[in-house]
Amino acid sequence: MCTAGLPWRTVASRMSSGFDDDTDIQVGLLNNVESSTVPGFENRLDWPLVVGVSVMLLRPASRGRVFLEDADPHAKPVIELGLGTVEEDVDRLCHGVRKAWSILRSPALADRFEETQFWTDKMVANDRILRSGVRNIMNPGWHAAGSSRMGPASDPMAVVDQEGRVHGTENLRVVDASVFPSMPSVPTNLTTIMLAERIAGSAK
């Protein structure tokens, strides 16, 4: 299950968390994870390589923001992720963790593991502990999007037009996941590449 040098994530599936009938989560198998790269694991585990299961909420309702505290051009932006500010997001993630746990505990997988870190059957079965655990370990998964959303100049929340040109400026474009006007139901890398190729082609 672990081979050094191979990609971390080779198997992923989109499915319903069980919160309702919506396909709302992506469950990914993380194999070949170098324990030294995971905060808190380097001195906790005796194995150089571990496996894991991740649960990603596809369309979170929670919203963050990016803003400047002052007009100093050298000031760093303030980034507030706003994770879990909508309770339904936490509910869906809790259901997703239970779904992933049922996969992890299936006979085909459970017999291959020497030890399981963090979660236990009792923790997953306890609503209060599960919710606390989800809130404490949820992260953005490197897929933040929408802080410079695309839209017409008449939209006060829009930052760029359909070609990535920043409203009210000249010779300035933004072409990355921040211009997405809505959250895609997939990881953002391929959508961002497609957007960049399209805008680059139209700018010639």
UniProtKB/TrEMBL annotation:
Which Pfam families does this entry report, sorted A to Z? GMC_oxred_C (PF05199)
Give the top-rank taxon of the lineage listed in the UniProt record for this protein: Bacteria
Which SUPFAM superfamilies does the protein's record reference?
Answer: FAD-linked reductases, C-terminal domain, FAD/NAD(P)-binding domain
Q: Which residues form the Glucose-methanol-choline oxidoreductase C-terminal domain?
A: 60-196
Gene3D superfamilies, alphabetically?
Answer: FAD/NAD(P)-binding domain (3.50.50.60), Glucose Oxidase, domain 3 (3.30.560.10)
Task: Tell me which family the UniProt entry assigns to this protein.
Answer: Belongs to the GMC oxidoreductase family.
Q: What is this protein called?
A: Glucose-methanol-choline oxidoreductase C-terminal domain-containing protein
Read off the InterPro entries from this record. Answer: FAD/NAD-bd_sf (IPR036188), GMC_OxRdtase (IPR012132), GMC_OxRtase_C (IPR007867)
Q: Which organism is it from?
A: Streptomyces thioluteus
